[in-house]
Amino acid sequence: MGANWRAQGRAVLRLWWLYARMDFLWITRVPSMFFTYFWSDIVLSVAGVTAVVLLAERFDGIGAWTKPQILFMLGYATLIEGVINTFFGWNILLISRRLGRGQFDHTLIQPRPLWMTLLTEGFLPCSGSAILVPGIALIAWSVQSLDVSLSFAWFGWFLLNLLASTAIVLAFSYGWGSLAFWAPRSAEEISASSHSIVSQLKIFPLDGVGAVLAGGLLTILPAGFIAWWPCRFLVGIDPRPSVGLFTPLAALCFGLLAAFMFKKGLIHYGHTGSSRYLNLGHRR
Amino acid sequence: MKHTQEHRRWLAPRQYAKTAAMSATSVVGDSLLFALDYVLRVLRVLVLLSIWRTLFEGQESVGGLTLPALLTYTLIAEAFADLFNVNTEMDSALWEGTIATRYLRPMSIFGQFAAETAGRWLFGLAVFSLPLLVLAPVLGVDPRPASAMHGLLFVPSLALAVSVGFALDFIFAVVIVRMEGSVWLVNQLRAATTVLLGGALIPLSLLPWGWGAVFGWLPFAAMASAPLRIYTGTGDPVPLLLLQLGWSVALWPVAYWSWNRNRQRLVSYGG
Question: Would you list which residues of chain B are within 8 Å, Cβ to Cβ, of chain A?
Answer without folding.
Answer: 31-33, 36-37, 39-40, 43-44, 46-48, 50-51, 53-55, 62, 182, 185, 188-189, 192-193, 195-196, 201-202, 206-209, 211, 271
